[in-house]
Amino acid sequence: MNNDSTIYVGLDVHKESIVAAYAIGLGEVQSLGNIGVLQRDIDRLCKRMQSKGAHVVFVYEAGPCGYGLHRYLTKKGYACMVCAPSLIARKPGDRVKTDRRDAIKLVRALRMGDLARVHVPDVADESMRDLVRAWGAAKQDLRQARQRLKSFLLMHDVRYTGKANWGPAHRRWLSEFVFPAPWSQLAFQEHRQAIEDRLGQCERLESALREAAP
């Protein structure tokens, strides 16, 4: 073994498993199977790879598991690339997808320089992204809650004669309207409360965004 060799390590990362493969320089790609998802599992993998060569390079695809693994590996002093899965070259007709094959494919693509790196935000930037995403999701929830109430009123042939733009007059009318049937009234109140809850959530997040803005 040449201790100056580069060790290429591909990781197929999921919530419950990390499947790994590696190659020493231009040598044959070896599958390691599921190596575990805990930090002690990653430490064990790092130690094993470090014993095979002086320079170890990791790669995994960007996905729902985020950038925690990248930060952990780079903090330990290893090179780690997070690549864009949509830009990974695939052979025509290659439709069989397994974690093992994906890890092996990552090793080969990394070794050939065929992967597109994605930007890994620092903790502060990712925190701001989290806030923006939460605000966007809250706005979507508010739109859906309002649409559900509109559909409920239409089903009962209840119509507002003014402009239903959720302005003060419209909201005042909603607060004063009462269904004659008690269970319909309860459902109506729940729809209204859902809107108020989501509106409050939007306002809190918007306030946080203003505070966080440079």
Structure commentary:
The chain is of the alpha/beta class and 214 residues long. It folds into 2 domains: 6-112, Nucleotidyltransferase, domain 5, CATH 3.30.420.140; 123-212. The protein is built from 6 helices and 5 strands, in the order βββαβαβαααα. The protein has a 5-stranded mixed beta sheet with strand order 3-2-1-4-5. The model has no long low-confidence stretch (mean pLDDT 91).
Secondary structure topology:
Elements (H helix, E strand, L loop, with lengths): L5 E8 L4 E7 L5 E5 L4 H12 L4 E7 L6 H8 L3 E5 L15 H14 L10 H33 L12 H9 L5 H31 L2
Parallel strand pairs: 1-4, 4-5
Antiparallel strand pairs: 1-2, 2-3
Supply database-style keywords:
elongated, single chain, 214 residues, Nucleotidyltransferase, domain 5, alpha/beta, 6 helices, 50% helix
Roughly what fraction of the amino acids lie in strands?
5-15%
What is the number of helices?
6
Helix content: 40-55%
Question: What is the CATH superfamily classification of the largest domain?
Answer: YqgF/RNase H-like domain
If strands are numbered along the chain, what order do they take across the biggest sheet? 3-2-1-4-5
- Mind telling me the C-alpha Rg? 26 Å
The tally of domains stands at 2
Spell the H/E element sequence. EEEHEHEHHHH
Query: What does the average pLDDT come to?
Result: 91
Task: Return residue spans where pLDDT drops below 50 for at least 5 consecutive residues.
Answer: none
Note the main sheet: 5 strands, mixed
- What gap, in angstroms, lies between the N and C termini? 52 Å
Category by helix and strand content: alpha/beta
CATH topology description of the largest domain: Nucleotidyltransferase, domain 5
- How many β-strand runs? 5
